Batch of 4 targets.
Target 1
Amino acid sequence: MTPPTVSAMLTLIFVIGATAAVPQKALAIDARDRSIISGVRVGAITKNSTKAQLAHIYGARNVRATKVPVGEGETVDGLVLFKGRAAELQIRFKRGTRRVELVVIEKRGSPWHTRNGIRIGASAVRLARLNGGRFRLHGFDWDYAGRSAGWGRGRLSKSLTVDFAPTRKLPDRERMKVASDAKFWSSHPVMRRLRLVVHRILVEIK
């Protein structure tokens, strides 16, 4: 057997080292995996995922091309997985490219979740606890109603954004105190009385 050349040995060492440096969880290709690692992946979806790759993993009938809304009536190209099922999600491509930019989850009963348990229906109180303190969110009655506005110096990932929805109806005079595009603390008395829960999860993929 001919011994490997120095060049071949160096290439092998580089490949092994590069593979070891990438967390295996970030490379998950298990079609049953419903975990989210903010900024890295959602299940098997990464920034370089293509329709063909996802069709191979999740099944061609579960992956469809679509237009994904980005607000104010605009849309961009994307994909939808598991249309009409609890695990449905939308994948948004960066405008003018086929690079995955954002994954949007909003189905009630969705199995997708972060490692620390953030999922559709989780309470704002729970997220404040996971964050290690209060956070800011936008008011209601506009396009980005109830959207988180960063986690401050908290523990939650900057690649994770959530939209909150109230589960309790309040008199108009109270609700109007937080009905604007201004930012409010999650500890605001009206926000707390609205008993907010996660209505939509947006995961930025970098």
Target 2
Amino acid sequence: MKWLDSITKKFGWDALEPKGRRKSVLSTITTVDKSLSGKKRNQLAANSTDLVQNFSVFAWMIRRHLDYVSKFRFQAKTVDKAFNVELEKWMEKISRPDYMDVSGRFGREKFFRHIEARRCIDGDVGILFLRDGRCQSIQQDLISDPAEDDVLDGEQWVAGVRSNGFGRPLEYSLHKRNPTGSGSVFSKRVNARNLYLYGFFDKASTEQKRGVSPVVASLNPLRDLYENFDYSLIKSKVSQLFLMAIMREAEASPMEEMFGDPNNTNPSESGHLEDCPVKEQEPRKIDLSNGPSVLDLDVGEKIDVIESKNPSNELQTFSRLMIMVSLKALDIPYSFFDESHTNYSGSRGSWLQYDRSCMDKRDDQIELRRRWTIFRLTQGILDGEITLPSGFTIEDALFEWVPIGTPWFDNSKEIKGDLSAIASGLDSPIRITKERGRGDIFQNINELAEVMKHAEDVGKQVLGRPIILSFDPVGAPEPNTVVEVDNDDTETDADST
């Protein structure tokens, strides 16, 4: 009915009616793996790899993301304090490159940073847990469907992953590079217990088997920026060069028109002057490599200088806008790229929002590290590298991966704010210490006690009385003030150190 159609259009959604003013979107909804089937996934990875190798802005985006997301510190949390010390020492040992990476190249933190970088560039990356406790990274294009001869009856593979009906991975199909370096051949199947596919997953498990990086949304703008930068540099180089165009407007003299060129010594066989070949004039060669020169031009010649203006202000403004939009793919504020873009308050506000956006990304890193820790701890117990306390099981070996926080912007103001939050019960010293990246508060207290005890012993030996250092943030002593205690137990303020 026409009246129903008119009402639907009047009270419907404008997004369903492009009206030729914008690109129409296909109505067919497909899975992520279907959209990136065949060579499309590799094309995306090749595009981002090329940009990260050649465009410094994109490479900086990845590095800045890694600085905030991939740095962690291991902390044992069992009830046995002595075992905690032993476990952390063992963790430091197995974190060295020879124990961590099958190639012996990356230590623990460098390896996990590399893994995070590959999932940002390629969408996902495989971590293969080997029997000797080491790990091997598997690049995304080496995880692909096996050949038809290697597929058993009833098996269904999607982008190198075989899963059950609920989307849980069961096996991965791994390939290896050809000796020539291009292409790959099937290598083996790997049980999902021994390989962890680390990537960006935004869809339901049944809809997405492989990861897709959020930087995909910024690849086209970054590619255009990269090309525009090249064109602008070429234009800028031209403006620095002294290019000349010499135009000749010499006309033939009346005698030459009547009798021909007297310099022509090779008349045609016909004897007619109009058939005689014309001698071409040698091109003028001008060498400016020795500095300014005086040019003696012929009659009718003139010189025009070719120059080009620098990139316009409009292009610079638009380039900044495109960089700002591209940074949003990883939630990075523009003030990180251009420190003069805003003031202190704006920078801190941007950082707080960015730090909140990193929490979800850090959770992915924590889960990856948790799986690796359980794998490595199980392997270490079986190999006798570490012994659990009596009555302990592996479930009792509690631990935590603490992200390395960001230091204060303004120490005096932010420390006072943290102390106020603690005093009012809105926060705890443990949480603040973790967020600031200042280690373990209990270890910090032990180290402070050791320093205070050392100062007291030295004071007795040198001054005959103990020197007591006050670290109380509330009270009379100012920071860096040493308080001396006389023999009669009366306190006197000493000079500030």
Target 3
Amino acid sequence: MKLTPKASLGFKKEKPAAKTGFGANVITSLTPLVPTAKATANAYSDLPVPVTELQQLNTDLANAIADSLTGNHSAVASVKNAVIAWNYGFGLTANYISAIAEGDAQTIRKAGFVPTKSDRQPKPKPGAATDFKATINGSKGAIIAGAKTAVPGATAYVFAAAPDDAVITYVGNTMVITIGEKSIYITADTRKQTELYDLPSGMPVNVSMYAINGAGSGPASAPQQVIPQ
């Protein structure tokens, strides 16, 4: 799910010289949008940093860059300070434009900023299968398990079959299958590395992994024995 466009803050990572060019464009874009004393107030009346101050920040940075070309060490330090002030002022302005634009990319561009394009919200975890059913299929030793309705957001499914004396519990992404005094921990994760918690201390466990996608499961890795502390 895409986020609504915002004013990108990528300009903060630009080199100082590029910042001054970007800043000049923002100032030029904002100037006609800011109402004069005789004009009716609008959304741009409440800019967190007035255009005149943005202009000063841009000028200060340009002057600091010019002075640094002489090789003066204090001038080089002045560039760093000017960059910090510039980033803060134009960053506040970008966030304000994002707020008043309410996702309208044209409004963001009109103010001289660049709308974001690829920011995405994290995908929500899928919910439970609402019509799960398990039954025999007529063949010896075989069952059919599943749901008629796909779970929204799911790309693969994990099924478990256990005898009556086994207890299955779930802790986060981990399925714990307990038979007697011993448990099996099965964790599903979207990352290539995970952490298992609450394993019995001092008891050797054999750990392995396999990958899964919409096409099915890949082969399991060779197990590695670990003794939790």
Target 4
Amino acid sequence: MYARVITFQAQAGKLEEAIAIYRDSIMPVTRQQKGFKNATLLTDISTGKGVSITQWETEADQKASETNGYLQQVLGKIGVTFAGPPIKEGFAVSVQV
């Protein structure tokens, strides 16, 4: 399994909006992506920092979601709440309990 981790800083007062967009607009589209397994959004209300972790069945599925327009679409939706560009990283899932 593979994971994409996107770290972002929300604009002041925009973290709740980012959470709502992630939950209500991004997750329905994400669930339809080939190889999607699960997603977690971590947030720190006091700092406005957020971390999105999505897991994918294969590395090819993860990479396809970056090149088929999906990732650009969802970042366009939620990016209006960001204070700066997000940081995107990919990882192999080595242990999951």
